[in-house]
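Before relying on records like the one below, remember that each one covers exactly one chain. Contacts with other chains, cofactors or solvent are not represented anywhere in the record.
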Amino acid sequence: MTSQVFAVCFGASQPLRLAQFWSGVLGWEPADDPHGGIALLPSDDTGFRIRVVPSQKQKVGQNRMHFDLTSASLEDQQQTVARALALGGRHIDVGQRPEDGHVVLADPEGNEFCVIEPGNEFLADCGFIGALACDGSQAVGYFWSEALGWPLVWDQDQETAIRSPHGGPKFTWGGPPVAPKKGENRLHFDLAPPAHADLQAEVERLLSLGATRSDTGQGEAGGRVAMADPDGNEFCVLTPR
């Protein structure tokens, strides 16, 4: 069995404030986090939690991944935007066109996300978090498909998308050109191997698929192994429990 996505992890200078923002936007409840930080548990079939952990690293440039939130109607989209703004979000310009139907926002720490217009066919059968949209190569989409055992649901013009067989959000990669990486990512995946799995064997499997060990100064401290995917994006493999 392969590892699964345990969490999407945000690094934050004010973890409590950011956790309260995403809890309010998504309607997810906070919970104890055995790995440190603050955890938000999904109220639907999203399949992973959100973790917010302390970080003093400054955000540099646009994030390589962001949430796409879906809307059932224009009124629903407007309500999501209004709720995010009331919780401390703000409108931002990332080059979207005036005729684009989606609304681009940033959370209180500047992390970008989109509120997608109703009628988006690509996200039609997804939940409120319709996608985790990533800036990345076709190769990294193939890597994550193999790493997680999730099938490709889109593979055209070097753009890729995968989705868990159990449903939930799609993970998408936009293909070239991929913007140069500037510092450590503010968002990363935490992977959980199957219970009682051999951690080293899982790390070796991921290395064989194209991952590398990431020199973050942590080694295997704190019950996790720091790694990076073929595009250099950090992720962690948690010690099986």
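The CA atoms of residues 146 and 209 lie 8 Å apart.
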